[in-house]
Design a protein that fits this description.
By secondary structure, the chain is mainly α. It has helices spanning about 1-5, 10-40, 45-65, 65-90, 100-125, 150-175, 175-185, 185-190, 195-220, 230-245, 250-270, 275-290; strands spanning about 140, 150. The protein is built from 12 helices and 2 strands, in the order H-H-H-H-H-E-E-H-H-H-H-H-H-H. Helix 2 packs parallel to helix 6, helix 3 packs across helix 9 and helix 7 (about 175-185) packs across helix 9.
Length: about 300
């Protein structure tokens, strides 16, 4: 009984909410990666670089426009900008490489991530950037026991379900979603009925990368926007996708929940080694479910 009271204490519940807000960013980025993996069969290592570019684009838009209007414009413009970058990359390079072996694609996408890192350094420099929290989300809201919880984190908790529902609708209720599901199963058959599979792949790739840019724009007010912010994120995103089931978007959501909450509670339980807990969770899950928690599309 004492354990239950401790677990339901205001401090622990507040930490859980912090973990959930981190989960939203992880889910948004990982869901885009999972979508690309599920349809195109591409392990897109530079997905994290697009997340970083989204954060830098959000910084630029907020700096130029300013105020709350700058934030809302960045939330739209940064993902679109990342989508355009990904479209140019896909049309210029990827469409010729879909049939290559996965190890070649991993090496190729890793090389692109290095190029994007240098381009970011050239355009934005190596200095730390900061994006202010919009005025409408400044301050705190009282949680259990009156503990303050940042308004912006509450906004992130709202964005998570919105993105999840939008993805579900896109995949299951739209023409492009149904065609992409068919292409993931048998791309030759889809092409045989007269559908341009190349542009289906391009559309899916851009949508997945758009989500990476959205994650970068959303996280920008909560972290320092800097070179290298993509490194840990892409590792976490891949682990989440593997843990949830390759190509399964709902698996990405479940994996992000486990990863984010274990990280948050791990910091509370053992602060010095809090970062280890989510990786232990991945190991435990894969020991008992080697193919992931939900059905893999691979």
């Amino acid at each position: 009984m004492d354990f239950i009271y401790t677990f339901l204490s205001p401090g622990v519940l507040s930490q859980i909410f912090v973990g959930l807000s981190r989960t939203v960013i992880l889910f948004i980025v990982a869901s885009g990666l999972s979508l690309i993996l599920g349809v195109l069969r591409i392990p897109n290592v530079f997905h994290g670089s697009l997340y970083m570019i989204g954060a830098f684009m959000a910084y630029t838009i907020c700096s130029v426009v300013g105020g709350d209007a700058g934030f809302w414009l960045a939330l739209i413009g940064a993902p679109i900008g990342v989508g355009l970058v990904s479209l140019a990359t896909e049309r210029g390079l990827f469409q010729y490489l879909y049939e290559r072996e996965h190890i070649m694609l991993i090496l190729f996408t890793f090389a692109i991530s290095l190029v994007f890192g240098d381009l970011v350094k050239i355009v934005w420099g190596a200095e730390y950037k900061s994006v202010p929290v919009p005025q409408v989300f400044q301050g705190f809201v009282p949680l259990f026991g009156g503990l303050p919880f940042p308004r912006y984190n509450m906004f992130l908790l709202f964005m998570g379900p919105v993105v999840a529902i939008a993805l579900w609708f896109l995949v299951n209720k739209t023409k492009i979603g149904k065609i992409s599901q068919a292409a993931a199963v048998d791309r030759e058959m889809v092409g045989a009925v007269g559908i341009n599979v190349s542009w289906v792949f391009a559309t899916v790739f851009v949508i997945g990368c758009f989500l990476a840019g959205l994650g970068g724009a959303l996280v920008a007010p909560t972290v320092s926007v800097t070179l290298g912010m993509d490194h840990s994120l892409i590792i976490e995103a891949f682990l989440i996708v593997i843990m949830g089931g390759l190509g399964n978007i709902w698996g990405a959501l479940l994996g992000a929940l486990i990863f984010g909450l274990t990280q948050s509670l791990g910091i509370l339980i053992w602060p010095q080694f809090g970062i280890v807990f989510p990786y232990l969770a991945v190991i435990v899950v894969l020991l008992f479910r080697p193919t992931g928690l939900l059905k893999s599309t691979w």
